[in-house]
Amino acid sequence: MEILHSAVVLIHLVGFATIFGSWLVEAVSKRREFTKTMNWGLVIALVAGLALAAPWGLGELNYAKIGVKLAIIVVIGALLGIGSARQRRTGSAPAGLFWLVGVLTLANAAIAVMWR
Ligand code: HEM
Q: Which domain holds residue 34?
């Protein structure tokens, strides 16, 4: 059970790396566009996160923290959806939405590791 749990944590981290990594590439390259890879990262982090929130019997879960992370990922999903739609219509991503996706993703990682 513990090895399976560790594997799901790893998948969860791959999801985080995918969304944040693809966002960082866009930020540094100055293209600053929303990409499909960000959506994939979000789905992977969400599905693995929900699986981790199940009672595994491996210790106490902090449901307040999980709830906050879930709320934030829903907001990130909404921003990705709205931002991608506007990008398709106008040809560029709204800067505010683009930066907010990166900040909120990093905030979720910070909450994960700093809120004990
Ligand atoms: C962008 C969104 C997210 C990011 C960046 C993120 C990041 C992380 C990171 C870095 C960890 C490892 C922390 C550690 O083990 O100390 C973690 C663990 C965890 N995450 Fe997330 N997460 C996200 C979304 C979610 C969601 C939506 C849920 C559940 C609904 C969730 C549930 C969990 C749980 C339960 C753990 C603990 C695993 C354990 O037992 O050690 N996460 N997350």
A: 2-114
Q: Is 73 in the pocket of ligand 1 (CB under 6 A)?
A: yes
Sign of torsion, CA 23 24 29 32? positive
Give the DSSP letter of residue 53: T
User: How far are the Cα atoms of 13, 55, 87 from residue 115, in angstroms, in the given order?
Assistant: 17, 19, 35
Q: How far is CA 30 from CA 62, 74, 92, 98, in A?
A: 38, 26, 12, 11
Index of the ligand 1 atom closest to the CA of residue 16: 5
Looking at the structure of the chain, the number of domains it has is: 1
Q: Are 76 and 101 in contact (CB under 8 A)?
A: yes
Note if the pTM is more than 0.90. Answer: yes
Ligand 1 neighbourhood includes 97 CB (under 6 angstroms): no
* pLDDT 10s digits, 59-112: 999 999 999 999 999 999 999 999 999 999 999 999 999 999 999 999 999 999
